[in-house]
Amino acid sequence: MDIHEHQAKDILAGFGLPVPQGGLAFSPEQAAFRAQELGGEMWAVKAQIHSGGRGEAGGVKLCRSDAEVRDFAATLLGKRLATRQTGAPGKLVDRVWVERATPIARELYLGFVLDRKTERIMIVASAAGGIEIEEIAQTDPASLRRMVVDPAVGLAAYQARELAFALGLGGGQVQQMVTALRACYRAYRDLDAMMVEINPLVVTEDGDLVALDAKMSFDTNALFRRPQVQALRDRAQEDPREANAADNGLAYVGLDGDIGCIINGAGLAMATMDMIQLSGGQPANFLDIGGGASPDRVVQAFRTVLTDPNVSVILVNIFAGINRCDWVAEGVVKAYREVGMTIPVVVRLSGTNVAEGQAILRASGLPLITADTLAEAAGSAVAARPKDAA
Ligand code: GDP
Ligand code: MN
Question: Is the distance from CB of 48 to CB of 79 less than 8 angstroms?
């Protein structure tokens, strides 16, 4: 789960990371008021969306008067901002962050990620900040420093100093870097984060370290024990298909194809997606309905898959171990009638109570396409698509 820049800055400042003074605004007038309230002569006005690359997309501007702050806020608020990361539809800007502008001497990159190979938090830093990490990796890979943190010890001061020296920091900046690194590390660890990124972390003209941007992402599987993080969720920034699925407790990931998938078990779901591609089709989603799916849960899965307007055929693939094919079949029939299905539905059932399940499908009299094997099901789904579908 992602959060906004202003929320990440608020959290990280609480752990001791220096950030500029700023305020949130939901209207142009409020933005101008924030600038007056903050004082100073120059302000950074920043669109708050769950995405990086806002600067190059026109979502960040340095303004020199409160009239300019108000006007720039007016161009952002209520509109969608498309960045390199969001893709064409962009994301709605419903708030801007107004901050006292910081005079920059140097821009650094600082990231905290989970390194799956070592099963540890890894710090990635570069003296070439201000541009996206992917770009740094392309244009200046030699500038990247990586450091793995031993969870039993935590981030040791000597490690933090080593990183500071590697970035060319000196004097009092070294201690400031130790403080900044420790703040990010503790926030990451204590709040079950998946990612903390400060880009840029700047050296000001006065020689101090300040975080000008902050991004945090959290482990959704740990949200149950982090209510204060959960409270920061902004549904308006999420893919509506995935937000809806999460509300219904379904593991759903939206994709670009047109074959809607309703499957039990993550492994079977992955295998089915592979088989669809092998048959010449593209899945519209990953969806795992889980074990012990009641008919109502199956209906909910159909509704979720159908929130995607690109879906032109639905493929149900169930291997029932804990599940029961008769329950799934009941759910399929119920869903078909309730949603007023207009597109082809392919069903492959296997495992517990498969005969009962197939009997329910037959008895329904609905034009369901049935299949016995995974390969047959995928082939039928691809063949059942309307001719004009890609
Ligand atoms: P992003 O493009 O979404 O990553 O948004 P950032 O918050 O990183 O802002 C983009 C760029 O705007 C930064 O890399 C800075 O170069 C610049 N910027 C942001 N705030 C300030 C500021 O207070 N002063 C100055 N001089 N530049 C800023
Ligand atoms: Mn940034």
Answer: no
The structural domains of the chain, with segments of one domain joined by +, span 1-18+103-238, 21-101, 239-389
Give CA–CA dist 259/278, Å, rounded. Answer: 13
54 alpha carbon – ligand 2 mean position (Å): 8
What is each CA distance from 54 to 64, 124, 364, in whole angstroms? 20, 21, 53
Query: Of 5, 99, 107, 109, which is the active-site residue?
Result: 109
Fold of 1-18+103-238: D-amino Acid Aminotransferase; Chain A, domain 1 (3.30.470)
Per-residue pLDDT of the chain (390 residues; tens, 9 = 90+): 999 999 999 999 999 999 999 999 999 999 999 999 999 999 999 999 999 999 999 999 999 999 999 999 999 999 999 999 988 889 999 999 999 999 999 999 999 999 999 999 999 999 988 888 888 888 888 889 999 999 999 999 999 999 999 999 999 999 999 999 999 999 999 999 999 999 999 999 999 999 999 999 999 999 999 999 999 999 999 988 888 888 887 889 999 999 999 999 999 999 999 999 999 999 999 999 987 778 888 999 999 999 999 999 999 999 988 889 999 999 999 999 999 999 999 999 999 999 999 999 999 999 999 999 999 999 999 999 987 655
- CATH 3.30.1490.20 is held by the domain 21-101: yes
Between CA 116 and CA 45 the distance in angstroms is 36
Rounded Cα distance between 159 and 107, Å, is: 21
Fold of 239-389: Rossmann fold (3.40.50)
Distance CA 306, CA 288 (A): 15
pTM of the model: 0.82
Residue with tokens 């800007």: 93
Residue partners of 138: CB distance under 8 A and separation at least 6 = none
**Catalytic choice (197, 252, 330, 336):** 197
Using a 6 Å CB cutoff, which residues line ligand 1? 44, 46, 52-55, 60, 62, 101-102, 104, 130, 199-200, 212-213
